[in-house]
Amino acid sequence: MLNHSPLWKKLLVLFVVAIGALYALPNIYGESPAVQVSGLRGVEANATTLDTIKSQLTKEGIDYSKITFENGQILTKFTDTENQLKARDLLESNLGDKYSVALNLTPNTPDWLASVGGVPMKLGLDLSGGVSFTMEVNMDEAIAKATDGMIGDFRTDLRGENIRYRTVKEVGSAIEIQFRNAEDVDLAESFLSKRYRDLLFEENSDKMTLSASMTEQKLKEIREYALQQNITIIRNRVNELGVAEPLVQRQGQKNIIIELPGVQDTAKAKEILSATATIEFRMVDSDGDLSAALNGRVPSSSQLLYDRDGRPSLLKKRVMLTGDHIVDAGSSFDEYSRPQVNITLDSPGGSKWSNATKNNIGKPMATVFIEFKPTDRLDAQGNIVYEKIEEIISVATIQGRLGKTFRITGSGSQAEAHNLALLLRAGALIAPIRIVEERTVGPTLGAENVQLGFQAIMGGFALVFIFMLFYYRAFGVVANLALTANLVLIVGVISLIPGATLTLPGMAGIVLTVGMAVDANVLIFERIREELREGKSVQQAIHQGYDAAFSTILDANITTLIAAIILYAVGTGPIKGFAITLSIGIITSMFTAIIGTRTIVNSVWGGKRLDKLSI
């Protein structure tokens, strides 16, 4: 029988639309202002902190709607921003500097809906408000760090080949290796030039030295690597610290753009970004005299550092391993129920770590946290001078020869182990960064953008509705039902996709798909009219109308989808947002305009003896 839809197809359409409506539903509940409290390094928010916050808010008469404790963070919701700001000021003054107190916006999704994965769409900076930073990578420090690494590698390689040398040091922009005789110079030049083909080596037999300098290609690679690695690490740090849907991307040769939608507190956003630092592993100088070092007599090969509690340790300057090689880290407990940090290295790091620890079993090793903070001073080239701050996180004993996976014990409490794992897992910056531009988009402006975008969508929606009803009558009602279902599915799919963020260009993509969805129905309906004018029966006209128009609709949508995929592949930021919503809209409109409307038409008019259609 012509134009008969089986039961399974009807149920499929109902199921898809129902699922889309379910996951689009969280978007109608809105957001509430909130204050987020989390522990800083060495401290963890817990049930006691929760009770303290409750009692302080109650004592000061600050009303809150809900308070929850999850994943080491305490989130307190408020009905208005006035109470939110009062609570932030109160908690900052009473909790002290051991906790981070940040303003945020949190969805009002009901628990039953959240339990099935229902979350509202993530809004971009232009819609939700937030903060944006332009950060500059210190390329000089990246090159200096690479140079330090090469100095250590030269020493290791020459010792491994039994080539004797006096000193390896940086002289100007080159590395100079001094030898005892000309024969060793020749041996070193022959060995190192084959091993490091991206370096330029120059012998000086009179001074018994071998000079190594980087080529322009090598310098370019270091700068590019520093920029890309910093982008990855900053993104990891922001994600680890709980900022929803950040945008981190490069700008030019040394800048990084960071957008944090929904973050209202600029100071706290800076604090999150300043947490990016470097991790180094160094041996404790057990043979050194700590008392003499405290009195100013520090050996030239050692360095006096302190932990966060002010306890001193004498460490060797030579770096065994940096955080660059860490690919994963997690906290757990050892066989004695003591907190530990489990670390996984990449292959080069595992090999380097194995060689560094095989002769130091049973000796203490320190994990050093290094942070670069910009100062008000400028160097001779006009660049910002950075202050290097070093702090010992933990001191542990090497239990055996270590490889790609190992553990650190002696990190104190479980909270300290957890935070150390977070720091290691997120990665270490290749070079320090500084904020060169800061921009804040207020939530009021974001709300206005949402309202204007919503009005544009609803305006286009209403005009299309009226046109379809007027021009296609009963079939226009079918098209409008499909159009409504299409809009619901777009919102539901965007809400479901992890990482998808709706921006103003994304809203433009939704408006465009509204027109495209109707275009498919126009092609089908016009073909049905044409078949009726040629004298076909109603059932034949409906059948031929859908079948004949299908190939045209498919071709048009596939070409548009290809363009959207290319936009996503080569575009950045807002362009990607537009491409995502356009792609989703094309797929959902194909489903609603072809499968959805045909199911409705077949259910209402299919298989019946009709003399005319309301089309």
From TrEMBL:
Domain Protein export membrane protein SecD/SecF C-terminal: 434-598
Pfam families in the cross-refs: Sec_GG, SecD-TM1, SecD_1st, SecD_SecF_C, SecDF_P1_head
Transmembrane portions of the chain: 452-472, 479-500, 506-525, 546-571, 577-601
UniProt keyword annotations, A-Z: Cell membrane, Membrane, Protein transport, Translocation, Transmembrane, Transmembrane helix, Transport
InterPro entries found in the cross-reference section: SecD (IPR005791), SecD-TM (IPR027398), SecD/SecF_arch_bac (IPR022813), SecD/SecF_CS (IPR022646), SecD_1st (IPR048631), SecD_SecF_C (IPR048634), SecD_SecF_C_bact (IPR055344), SecDF_P1_head (IPR054384)
Domain SecD export protein N-terminal TM residues, every copy: 2-103
Cellular localisation: Cell membrane
Membrane topology category: Multi-pass membrane protein
Annotated ranges, domain SecDF P1 head subdomain: 303-431
Main location: membrane
Domain Protein translocase subunit SecDF P1, residue spans: 227-285
Role this protein plays: Part of the Sec protein translocase complex. Interacts with the SecYEG preprotein conducting channel. SecDF uses the proton motive force (PMF) to complete protein translocation after the ATP-dependent function of SecA.
Family to which the UniProt record says this protein belongs: Belongs to the SecD/SecF family. SecD subfamily.
Protein name: Protein translocase subunit SecD
Organism in which the protein naturally occurs: Thalassotalea castellviae
